[in-house]
Amino acid sequence: MEKLLDEIESYWSTRTEGYSEVNHKELAGTQKNAWLKVLTSQFPDKPREEIRILDIGTGPGFFPVILAEAGYHVDAVDYTEGMLEKAKENAGELCRNICFWRMDAQKLDFEDNTFDVVISRNLTWNLEHPDVAYREWVRVLKAGGRLLNFDANWYGYLYEEEQRKAYENDRKNVENNSLDDHYLCTDIERMERIALQVPLSKISRPQWDVKTLREAGLLGIRTDTEIWKTVWSEEERLNYQSTPMFMVTGVKPDHFLNLPVAAGEKTEGFLELGDGEFVLPATIIRGKDPGKTVLVTAGLHAGEYVGIQTLIELSKRLKPEKVKGQLVLVKVLNREDFEKRAGSISWEDGKNLNRVFPGRKDGTKMERLAAAITESLIRKADYYIDLHGGDDYEELTPYVYFAGVAKPEIVEASRKMAEQVDVPYMVQSNVSTGGAYNYAASTFHIPAVLLERGCMGTWEREEVDSMRRDVRNILCSIGAYNGIRSHSTYYPLKMDDVRYQCASVNGLWYPVKKPGDIVHQDEYLGEIRDYEGNVQEICRADMDGVILYQVSSLQVVEGGPVITYGNIVREKDERKTRIAQYWTRRSDSFLEQRRAELHSALAGRWMAELKKYLPEKKNLRILDVGCGTGFFTILLAKEGHQVTGIDLTPDMITHAKELTEEEKADCRFMVMDAEAPDFPDEEFDVIVSRNLTWTLPDAEHAYQEWFRVLKPGGVMINLDANYGAADFADTADLPENHAHHQIQDELMQECEDIKRQLPISSFLRPAWDLETLSRIGVEEFSFDLGISKRIYTEKDEFYNPTPMFLIFAKKQR
Predict the structure, then answer these.
(1) Which has the closest alpha carbon to 502: 454, 550, 573, 554?
(2) CATH topology of domain 256-491
(3) Less packed terminus of the chain by CB within 10 Å, N or C?
(4) Where are the beta strands (DSSP E) in 94-211?
(5) What does the alpha-carbon distance between residue 384 and residue 445 come to, in Å, rounded to a whole number?
C-alpha cells in the first residue's frame, strides 16, 4: 500500500502548479459561487462558526479558500506536501480560518465524532482502499454530520471500449475549440499506470459508493449524477463530457436506543428495552428541522388491534420531510402477549400492563415491561399519544382520555390534543399512576392522551382510517407534522364524572343498552344471572350520562368491568372564542368591503333576491343573524322594516353601528351568539343570514333556535355555500382587487384551521341543511342553487368564487 501511495504522491507533486492554475480559473469564474452554493446547501442548520468542516484531498485548497471567505472554519487534509504548500500560499490571510494537515485519507489522525461535514473532490478514484477511506470519513463525522463526495468514473476508458471512444471524442472537441486539454497537458501515461492499479477505475459508480457508504453506517444516502451541470465551466464540460461528475451524500445517524436515525430519514426495526429483555417493533421518523419528540404507542393491551394497525400504516404514510422533530412509533408495546393472542391481562403474571406504571425493574413481567417503557420511551418524549380500543369482551363508542392530574399547563396542553380527535366525547382522567399516559403527564410533565376506537378484539378499516386521521391531526396541531388538519365530524364534549361499574359476582351479563346511548339516573342498564337464569345482580345508572363502553361478552367476573358511563359537561365552546378572535382581526377590512358593497350594483341585486321571499307586508320584524358590519341589516331597514342585527364579534357590531350612522338607517345591533339568540319565542317575522352557518360549531342547534324565535308563518332565508370543500388560501383565480388578496396568508390559514374543527365543513351542502331542517320538524322549505350567477355577474372585488345557495323555510302556523 505504501509503495503505491508514494507513487501517487510523487505524481501529484508534479501536478501541483498545473492543478493550482485550474483552481485559480475556478476562483475567477462562475464555478466559485456555484460550488459554494452546492456545499452550503448541505450544511447543518446552525451558525457557520459552529460548523467544523474537513476537506479531504484538498489539493491546492479550492474548497477551504471559498469556505473560509464565507466565514467557515476548515480543516484541510492532503498526502502531498507540495499540494499543501501551494494550498497555504493560495489561502494567504485566510489561513486564520484553515488548518492544513498532511494525512493519508485512508488513515486519519482525528478523534471519532469530530466534524459536522466531510467533503472531498476527485480523490476516492485514486485511492488503493477507498472502502477503508469511507469508513474513516464516517468515523470522524459527528452523529448527524454529513458526508459530501464529488467524483467521477475517471479512467474507465481503460476498461470500456465505448467509454474510450467518448473520451477520444472529448479530446477532439477540446482541440476544435482551441481549449487547454486537461488530460494531455499532464503525464497521462504515468497517471494511467496508477489508474490501472486502483480498484475504482473499473467499477461502476456511484452505485458502488452508495453500497459502500451504507455498509459504513450512513443513512439518507443520495446521489446527483447531474451536479456537473451546476458546477462545471464550459471548458470543463468539453474536457470531461464522457466522464460526468456525480455527487454522493449521506448522513451519519444518531441513535434512538439501538436504532440508527438521521435527520430527514425514517428507520424501521426493533427497539431493545430492559437490557434486551423486550424487543418491540418500531419506526423512528426524524425531520430535518429540530423539534420535539412525540411518542405514539399501541398494543399496550395486546388484544386491542385498531391502534396496532394504525401505527403499522402510519409508519408507512408519514413523510420525514413533513416532520419537525422526531416521531417514535412503537407498534406493539406488549408484543409477547400480542403474539400469543392474549387480551388485556398478561398470560404470564396475570397483570394488566396499563395498571402497573411506573412498574418495577425487579417485579413481575408486566412490571418490568412498564419500568422499561417508562425509562426508555416515556422519559425521552415531549408529547405522548397512546392508542387503545375495545378488548375481546368490550364494546365502546369512540372517545378520548386526556391527562387530568398534572400541572395546569400540562392538563391544558393534553386537552388541546384531545380536542383534535374526531370523536363525540373526551374524558379528563383523574388518576396519576397506573396508566402509561397518566404517569407520563403527572411525573414527567408530558402532555398525553389515550384514544379509544374499535371493539371486541377486532379491527375495522373505518376505525383504523379514523384513528390514523386522529393521530395525524394531533401531530399537526402540536407542530410536529406539517400538514392540513382533516375535517372533523365531531368536536368532543367533555365528561367530568365517569362511573366504572364492576360486577359483584361471577355470572352471565345481559345488557339492554349500547355504547353511545344516553342514560338517566336509576335507569335499568342490564342484569347478571346464573346458569339457571336466576338474577344475581341488577345494574342501574346512578347518574345521567352517556355509555362509553360495556362488556359485550356473555360472561363477567367478580370485580371485573361491566359498564362505564360519563356525565357531559356543558361548558364554553372554545372554538367560538377562536372564531370571534379571527373575525375581530377581519372586522376592519369587512367594514371597508361592506361600505363599498352598499354603494355597488350588488346591493340592488341582493335586495331584489330577498324581496322574492319576504312576506308581503310592511314593517316586518327581521332578525339578521351573523350580521357582520350590517350589510343586510341596513338594506332591509331602508325598506322600512324593523331590523335587529346580532353577531358574536363585538368589533363587528361596533363597525355595524358606524356604518348605520353613515347610511342614516334605523336599526339596532347586539352582541349575541347565533346558536343561542336571547329573544322570547315567536319574536320575529323573518330571519335572514348570509355566510354564517359554515362558521357555526353546532349549526343544527342554531336552526332550532332560529325557528324558536320565528312567529308562526314566519320565514327563514339563509344564504351560504359549501365552504368546507373550498380552499380559501387559493386566491390564484381571483381578480387583483379582490378582498381576499388583502388578507394576510396567516389569517387565511387560520380560517382553514378553524374550518377543519367544525363538523359542518365535512358535510355536503345544502343537502345536509335540508335533511337537518326536516329532522327538526320544518315541513315547508326550498332551495335555490342559482343565486351566485345572478348576484356575481362579474369578477370584481366582491366576487365569491364558491357558488352560494339560498335556503327558504317557513314555520308552520
Answers:
(1) 550
(2) Aminopeptidase (3.40.630)
(3) C
(4) 98-102, 115-121, 141-151
(5) 10
Least confident of 9-23, 60-74, 227-241, 672-686: 9-23
Q: Which position has the grid cell 398525553?
A: 448
Domain range 496-568, CATH class? mainly beta
Q: Are 429 and 435 in contact (CB under 8 A)?
A: yes
Nearest Cα residue to 216 out of 257, 261, 251: 251
Amino acid at 269: G
In single-letter form, the type of residue at position 241 comes to Q
Q: Which CATH architecture has domain 574-810?
A: 3-Layer(aba) Sandwich (3.40)
What are residue 307's DSSP bridge partners? none
* Domains 2-252 and 574-810 agree in fold: yes
Residue reference for cell 346558536: 675
Q: What are phi and psi for residue 291, nearest 5 degrees?
A: 180, -160
Q: Are strands 804-810 and 780-784 parallel, antiparallel or unpaired?
A: antiparallel
Cα–Cα distance for residue pair 712/486, rounded to 1 Å: 40
Contact 174, 181 (CB under 8 A): yes
H/E run at residue 83: helix 81-91
pLDDT in tens, 755-792: 877 888 888 899 999 999 999 999 999 999 999 999 98
Q: How far apart, in whole angstroms, are the C-alpha atoms of residue 78 and residue 105?
A: 7
- Write b or e for each residue in 762-793: b if 16 or more Cβ atoms lie within 10 A of its Cβ, otherwise e: bbebbebbbebbeeeebeebebbeebbeebbe
Distance between CA atoms of residues 432 and 405, nearest Å: 6
Which DSSP string corresponds to 30-77?
A: THHHHHHHHHHTTS-SS-GGG-EEEEES-TTTHHHHHHHHTT-EEEEE
Asked whether the CA dihedral 472, 476, 481, 483 is positive or negative, the reply is positive
What tens digit of pLDDT does each residue of 597-628 get? 999 999 999 999 999 999 988 899 999 999 99
- Tally the residues of the chain: 813
Rounded Cα–Cα distance for residues 60 and 70 (Å)? 18
23 grid coordinates: 483552481
Distance CA 811, CA 813 (A): 6
Task: Please state, in angstroms and rounded to a whole number, the distance separating the CA atoms of residues 72 and 88.
Answer: 16
Q: Cα 148 from chain centroid? A: 29
CA distance 237 to 229: 8
- pTM of the full predicted structure? 0.73
**In this structure, are strands 52-56 and 73-78 parallel, antiparallel, or unpaired?**
parallel
Euclidean distance between CA atoms 61 and 453, whole angstroms: 62
* Strand ranges in 299-369 using DSSP code E only, listed in sequence order: 324-330
What are the C-alpha distances in Å from 501 to residues 103, 526, 586? Answer: 75, 12, 50
461 contacts: CB under 8 Å, gap ≥ 6: none
Using CA atoms in the order 176, 177, 180, 183, what is the torsion angle rounded to 10 degrees? -50
Q: What CA dihedral angle connects 43, 46, 47 and 50, to 10 degrees?
A: -80
Pairwise CA distance, residues 12 & 84, whole Å:
11
682 in Cβ contact with 711 (< 8 Å): yes
For the domain with range 2-252, which CATH number is right: 1.10.290.10, 3.40.50.1820, 3.40.50.150, 3.40.50.1980? 3.40.50.150
Give the integer Cα–Cα distance in Å for 622 and 193. Answer: 97
Cβ contact 695:626 at 8 Å: yes
Look at residue 576 and give its three-state secondary structure. helix
The Cα–Cα gap between 98 and 53 comes to 10
* CB within 8 Å of 702: residues ≥ 6 apart: 625, 674, 675, 693, 696
Cα–Cα distance for residue pair 598/603, rounded to 1 Å: 5
Q: Are 448 and 439 in contact (CB under 8 A)?
A: no
- Grid coordinates representing 373? 417503557
Domain boundaries, the chain: 2-252, 256-491, 496-568, 574-810
